[in-house]
Structures are given as structure tokens and as C-alpha cells.
Amino acid sequence: MGKEDCCSTQLIDVNGEFNFKGLENFVSSVKLHRCGLSYAVVAIMGPQSSGKSTLLNHLFYTNFREMDAFRGRNQTTKGIWIANAVGIKPLTIVMDLEGTDGRERGEDDTTFEKQSALFALAVADVVLINMWCHDIGREQAANKPLLKTVFQVMMRLFSPRKTTLLFFIRDKTKTPLEYLEPILREDIQKIWDAVRKPQAHKDTQLCEFFNVEVTAVPSYEEKEEQFKDQVAQLRQLFFHSISPGGLAGDRRGVVPASGFSYSVQQIWKVIKENKDLDLPAHKVMVATVRCEEIANEKFSSLMINEDWLALEHEVQEDAVRNFGRRLSSILDNFLSE
Question: Tens digit of pLDDT for each residue in 133-192?
């Protein structure tokens, strides 16, 4: 299997318009409806031109468009794209978010940045935070506003989903990871403590909302082979990621695969309309819609069932022996489905 097996699709365009048809084709192509609860969603966020798409392509064998360094540091990923991870079980949906702090959007940047961050947190089990090694310990670093945004929007979900935040430290220097990680975790905790929280979560600890994991890789441009080797090792983390002890083993509030398409559409609609996203109520809504769809499907099947049609015909002719038993048998069969 290779990158040609990846179904890369733009889910949300630069104007925030949702690609309904594209998602429908994607879900059909990857056979998502067969998965039940056995699927995972991974998203990545980080500054523009920080190598997010390159990282995803090496981790998941996707084919997201990568920046051409010889053409300058311009915006590559526009809007939000999705693809399926090739060769990883369970089925893993990968979301590539438009980079933050890009000059193309200008003043509109923070609006879409917050919307896409909220969307990723509402949908993904694992969120990769792509950041540069030299930003660790800096007060005015590119990852600080991003983290603040992540924590602020998470507060709007009301119910902790236990998302895993996996920090990818890029362009690792000679400083060992065991020295960098405590500094980064301290910075994360400070940002969490400083974020204004609703009364219900005033004393909620960071660990109730997030699992925080940290890893580091060398420069792709300067040490390409080392980068590829280490990313290949990190790829193993995403196999069986939702099993107990896995990267997202303690996730909560999973939407069944059959409701995924409807769920993400409604989440984006609510975000675009600037309404508070109450995830538990949203789950009830998704369940209600799916139950109605399933009931209608089964009723339609009943209407063309051979036993039902035969019984219906016999009733028109005369009294039917064992009518109650035969009717109950047919109905029980369909209701059990």
C-alpha cells in the first residue's frame, strides 16, 4: 500500500464552506460505516510553514500537499483537509489544519484559527501540536497563542473529552529531550492556569481534559534520514491507538462511525454560527437522527419482505391460521435489527 491508497479530501475550504459531497465520498471510499466505534481521528495544528503536512505524510503515508521551500514560505494547506492513514489499524482519519499566524489571512487569521482549533478538539482523539525546538522557554513563542487558543476553546466544550495532545518538537538540537520536556510541560501548565475557566471547571486540572505527550525529531531539511527513521518509529504509536494503554486509550464520548458524517457537519455548523458547542447534547442529537434513519430503513425493508407480503395477501383472501405467531415472528425479526 502507498500514498495512492489515501483518500485526501478538502473538508472545509478557505471560506469556511463545508464540503458535504466530498465527505460523503470519503466516508464511502474508506468504508467508515463498517467501523462502529473502532476508528480514530487525529488532527494537527501549528504555525504556517512548520512542516505539518510533511510530518503527516511520513507518519500516515498520506499525500497532503507540502510546501516547496524553493518558492518561499507561503501558505500550503488552505482550510481543513482529511485523509485516511494508510496501513494503520484501526481506521484512522487524519485532519490537516491550515497553519496559524499566516500573512495570507491577515486580521481574519484568528477567527478561522479558533474555529478550526475548536473543530479539531471536538472531533479528534489525538491532536498533534507541531512546534519548533527553539520556541521552548520563550515567552513570546509561536506555540503560546496557539496553546492559549486550544485551552480556551476546550472550555466551550463543557464536558472533558480526554483528548491526547502530542507535542512534536521539530528541529531538535543537542539539548536532550529529558531537559526540554519539563520546561515545555511547565509552560503548558502556566497557560492552563492562566486561562479563564467557566465556574463549573474553575478547579479542573489539566489532566482531566488532556493527556499530554511530548516527542522530538531532528530537522527534516538538515537530517532527512534521521527524521524519517524517528518518524517511522513514532508511527507505531498510532497502531491500536484506541486500545487500553494506547495513545487515545482513555478517550470519551465517541460518536459511532455511522453518525460521524452527520456529527462533523453539525459541529462545524454550530461553530460557524458562534454558538456554544455542548457536546453531550450534540451526541443525543446525532443518536436521535441515526435512530430515525435506521428505523426508516428497517420499515422500508419490512414493506418489501416476502413473508410480510405473503401474509398481507392471505389476509385479503380469508382468515389466516396462526396469524399472531407469524406476524410476531416477522416483526420481532425486524425490531431486533
Answer: 877 766 656 567 767 777 877 776 656 678 999 998 888 777 888 888 998 899 889 889
286, 266 contact by CB (below 8 A): yes
The b-or-e profile of 57-80 (16+ CB within 10 A means b, else e) is bbbbbbbbeebeeeeeeeebbbbb
Rounded distance, CA 268 to CA 270, Å? 5
Domain boundaries, the chain: 3-257, 304-336
Taking the C-alpha atoms of residue 37 and residue 91, their distance in angstroms, rounded to an integer, is 10
| CA 92 to each of CA 107, 125, 137, 232, 240: distance values in angstroms, whole numbers, following the listed order | 34, 10, 33, 16, 10
Is residue 127 helix, strand or coil? strand
Q: What's the CATH fold of domain 3-257? A: Rossmann fold (3.40.50)
Burial class (CB in 10 A: 0-12, 13-18, 19+), 144: middle
What pTM was computed for the model?
0.78
3 state DSSP class of 329 = helix
Residue whose entry in the numeric block shows the C-alpha cell 454560527: 273
Task: Give, in order, the Cα–Cα distances in Å from 260 to each of 78, 256, 257, 265.
Answer: 23, 6, 5, 9
Residue with cell 481521528: 41
Q: What is the pLDDT of residue 276?
A: 61
Contact between residue 64 and residue 51 where contact means Cβ atoms under 8 Å apart: no
Q: What is the spatial distance between Cα 200 and Cα 61, in angstroms, rounded to a whole number?
A: 41
β-strand 80-84 against 9-12: which pairing, if any?
antiparallel
Burial of 330: CB neighbours in 10 Å, binned 0-12, 13-18, 19+: middle
Split at pLDDT 50, 70, 90, the class of 70 is very low
Spatial contact of 155 and 201, defined as CB atoms under 8 Å apart: yes
How many angstroms separate the CA atoms of 217 and 219, rounded?
Answer: 7
